[in-house]
Specification:
Layout: E1 2-5, E2 11-15, E3 22-27, H1 38-44, E4 52-57, E5 61-64, E6 70-73, H2 90-109, E7 117-122, H3 124-135, E8 142-146, H4 153-156, H5 162-165, E9 169-174, H6 182-194, E10 199-204, H7 212-228
Parallel strand pairs: 3-4, 3-7, 7-8, 8-9, 9-10
Antiparallel strand pairs: 1-2, 2-4, 5-6
């Protein structure tokens, strides 16, 4: 893959060939950056992926309450790490949904319609993936959520359309995750299924991280979604 700078929204882009026909849009976790996920994307990539663009945006820099107000890249403020009821700033989630939707719209302008876009992420990025996916009126090719949870699920899933529920979902979680507990991910998967989403669930004997086996499984699943698209 070759690298290039994205023209908007401060992102890194990778391509495996000229004139991409598909896009993988990947969202990093708290305090990370799009650059931080480049090695993992290369591990995830599969020979049978089509010609595609990988977009790795950098979240806005903001103060994070639970980290003593330190400023770092975050898709939303985290109020409290204890539990999930007060963990996420809903206003920040809404703002980031709009930023991510703008990226999806830009891909359409560059010739890749939503049905050939897979949206995915890790931790905070996975939360944003589910938040965006739940609000879609034009389905994406698929959603990938690694080490995720659903803050205020009654709000996130309040207006799920049939088009949104048609999006297949790959979810994976570490059995020993101390930051986003395993049961939070399991609960999110169950809540999505209740709203009609087809969720492909995987777990791994890891903590708050992404293992090579997990990335390989996600890469294979993404290949299937691109083929179906």
């Amino acid at each position: 893959m070759t690298t290039a700078s994205a023209p908007t929204l401060d992102a890194l882009e990778l391509q495996n060939g000229a004139e991409p026909t598909h896009t993988l849009l990947w969202l990093h976790g708290l305090g990370d950056s799009g650059d931080g996920w480049e090695p993992a994307i290369r591990l995830m990539a599969r020979p049978n992926w089509p010609t595609l663009r990988v977009v790795l945006p950098h979240a806005p820099v903001r103060a994070v309450t639970a980290n003593q107000g330190m400023r770092m890249r975050a898709w939303y403020d985290i109020v409290d790490f204890n539990g999930i009821d007060n963990r996420a700033d809903q206003g920040g989630i809404d703002e980031s949904v709009a930023l991510i939707e703008a990226l999806i719209a830009r891909e359409a302008e560059r010739g890749v319609p939503p049905q050939r876009i897979v949206l995915g992420g890790f931790s905070q990025g996975a939360v944003m993936t589910l938040a965006v996916g739940a609000r879609r009126t034009a389905p994406l090719a698929g959603l990938v959520a690694l080490s995720s949870y659903l803050p205020a699920p009654e709000r996130q899933l309040a207006q799920v359309s049939a088009a949104a529920a048609a999006q297949p979902v790959f979810m994976a979680h570490g059995l020993h995750d101390p930051l986003v507990l395993y049961r939070y991910g399991e609960t999110a998967a169950a809540q999505l299924r209740e709203r009609g989403f087809a969720v492909d669930w995987h777990d791994y004997p890891i903590q708050h991280e992404a293992s090579e086996a997990e990335l390989a499984a996600a890469g294979d699943w993404i290949a299937q979604r691109f083929a179906a698209a």
